[in-house]
Amino acid sequence: MSDEKSAVPAWEQRFRAARVSLPDWAEDAPDRALYVSNATGTYEVYAWDRATDAHRRVTDRPNGTTDAELSPDGEWIWWFDDNDGDEFGIWRRQPFAGGPDEEAVPGLAASYSAGLALGRDGTVVVGRSTDEDGTTLHLRRPGAAGPQEIYRHEEYGGVGDLSCDSTLLGIDHTEHGDAMHAAIRVVRLADGATVAELDEVTGRSEPRGVACLGFAPVDGDTRMLVAHQRRGRWEPMLWDVVTGAETELLLRDEDGHALPGDVSAQWRPGATALLVEHEFEARSELFSYDLEKGLLVRLETPRGTVGGATARPDGTVEFLWSSAAEPSAVRSTSGAVVLRAPGPVPPGSVPVEDVWVEGPGGRVHALVQRPAGPGPYPTVFEIHGGPTHHDSDSFAAGPAAWLDHGFAVVRVNYRGSTGYGQAWTDALSERVGLIELEDIGAVRAWAVESGLADPARLVLSGGSWGGYLTLLGLGVQPDDWTLGVAAVPVADYLTAYADEMEALKSLDRTFFGGTPEEVPERWAASSPLTYVERVQAPVYISAGVNDPRCPIRQIENYVERLEQLDKPHEVYRYDAGHGSLVMEERIKQLRLEIDFALRHLPGQRGAR
Fold first, then answer.
1. pTM of this prediction?
2. Which contiguous run of DSSP H or E holds residue 471?
C-alpha cells in the first residue's frame, strides 16, 4: 500500500472506491450491456461490449446520471436528462457504439418520469408525471410523426410493461386513490381498448396491491407475471390477460416449507421458468422455478443481500451481492466474478447482529453493529428512508464511517418498512411518523438497558424519510436524544406537500387519509415544525436546493424557526437534488456530520 493511500482514512476509501451496478443486457443482443459506475468519482452510465470487453462512458454530467435503458436490439442507449438532480427532464438517446445524443421522443415536454417501455419492433411508451396533468402515457410507433397520448389520470400511475409483440400494454395505476396499493390495467395499443383489469382495492375493506412484473418474453404469449398480496405478503402469480386465467404460485423450498418472506420473480429466457428472489428478515436469496414441473431449486448465494439479479440466455444467473461486512460485487452462479470495478477493493466493515425488540405494534427487527472496544458506546440510530423500504444486511459506506469513529450503529425496520408482511407495511397510516418513532423508541430503550448505548451520547440520524423522523423525533422525544443529524428531510409537512412532486402528494394523501384541508389535525400532529419549540438537542441539517421530494422551502421554514428560538443548529445546502451522485460531495457531507457529532457530544474529542 502506498503512503498516499494509507494516509486516506478507511471510511473515505470506501466512498472513493469504484463501484458498479448489476449490468442490464439487450434482449436481442445479450453481449451488449449497460451499467452505472462511480469510476470517475461521479455516478454515470457505461456501455459494455461483453464480446470484446470494451467499456465506454456514455454520460458525463456535473451531477451524475443513473437512469438509463438499452433498446432490445442493443443499438440505442436511452438516458434521462434532468436539471442538476431535480428529476424533471426528458429522455435522450445515443448509439451504443457512441455518437451524439439526440432527443429520444421529440414533442414531449419535460416531466417527472413515470416509466419507459421499449419494444422489439421499435415501439416506445413513455410515462410522464406533472403537477398539472397528473400521469400521462404516450405511444410512439415506428415511422409515426410524433407521440400519441394513450392514457391520462390525475392520480399517479406508470408504465408496467409491453407485451413481447408490442400489441398490449400493462399500466400500473392508482385511480382508486390508494397510492400504497396499485391496480393493473391492460390495454390494446391498436385501439386503446381495455383488455383486462386487476384491481384488488376498489370495494374492499382491506385493500391488496398488485404490480406488473412483466409479460412473458415470447411473441403471442399473453401471460403476465404479477406480484400480489392475497396472503398478506408479496408473492408472484401468472395472469393470462386475454383468457383471465390466474395461476398462483405456492412456492415451497426443498423441505416443503413455504418461503416465509416477500417473494418476487422475473421471467427466465424462453418463459418456461422463473428467477425467484426471496427476501426475509433483512436478507435475500435466489431460486429457480420450473413452471412445468413446479420445482423450486435454490441457487447458491452467500448470506447477505442480493441487490438485483438477472437470468442470462446461457442459463447462468448474475447477481449483485454484498453484506454489511463485505463490499458489493457482481457475481454469477457459475462461480465467476462477472464485472469488477477498476481500482482497489474498498475496506470491509463490521458484521451486523440481529436484534428483536418488543414494540407497541409487535416485534421490531433492528440491525446492530459494534465498534472495537468495550461499551457502552456513543451510538447512532441511522433511520432508513422510504418509508416503504427497509435496512438490510448489505454494505453501506455511511454506517461503516461511524463505526470507524468509535460509534455503534443501530438501524431499525420500523412499522411501515417492507419485507415483514403487508400488515407491518400498512400499519403506517394516519399517525404518520409517530408510529415509526414508537418502534425506534422501543429499540432505543433496549440499546440503553442492554449496555450497548451510552444514554448521554445518542445520535438520531437519517436521510429523506429518515431525516423527517429525525426532526420529528427531536421534538416528540426531546429527552431521548443528544443530537440530531437530518439529511434532505421533511421539516414542515404542509409546505412540503404544497411543493413536492405529484407522485409524493398522492402517497401522502394515502398515508394521512386525506389532504391537509380534509384532515388538518393529522398533518399538524405529524409535522416536525409543530414540535420545534420542544427541541433540546443540537440539530444538523443538509438540504439539496433542487430537491423535488423534500423541497428546500419547507426546510428553510424550519431553520428560520430554529433561529427565532435560538436553538443550536447548523445547515449545509448543496447544489443538487435528493442526494448527490458525486463522491467528493458525499464525503464532504459525511465529514460535516461526523464533525458536528464530535463537537457536540459530551466526552468526545473534537473532529479531526
1. 0.96
2. helix 465-476
